[in-house]
Design goal:
The protein has about 220 residues and is of the alpha+beta class. The chain has four helices and nine strands, in the order αββαββββαββαβ.
Length: about 220
Amino acid sequence: MTSTDFSTPCSKNAQIDRFVFLAGWLLAVCLLIGLRPAWADTPDIEVTQMRVERSEEGLFLSALLRFELPQLVNDAAVKGIPLYFVAEAEVLRDRWYWYDRQVASASRYMRLAYQPLTRRWRLQVAPTPITNSGLGVSLAQSFEELEDALAAVQRISRWKIAEPSEIDGEAKHNINLRFRLDVSQLPRPFQLGVTGRTDWNLATSRNQRLSLEPAK
């Protein structure tokens, strides 16, 4: 006895179309991400300088980072894929009887994108996540060279991370600075393709003790 095939020509065609679509989509991802080993181009990144200034106006952080974009990330940026960077600062007050208490925090979001029409790099900086909706307030700068745009990303100057009332003058505090390339804001195919790849794992952190004496 032979088995009966109840599938219709329409369902077969739909399956073929779905397969072709998925194959084409995967091929596009491979071409964009690159068929390279997952361990290639491990980023070398560090915070080379960090200064925390305390004044009557609040707590200000300045820092200098050092890193180069891995070749795969650089290629994606040149092809027009926006890169999103996030800097996060956390102020912790010492507590001998429990974990340190977070008394203040701040975030700095940066979007770096190549503009093919003008052949310039556009950098947006904002205190909230940057989206394509056009909402929110951001500071925008344009650069002719990628190196100049990256230099602006790597330099943090007098970033206010806490109000004066949030800092206890008689307590000890630690400042944590974290910086990373935010892959969660990449286009969806890229998010799937970069998972587990070290060349997109661009992140670093640094901790510094806050001086009890305000800056003069």
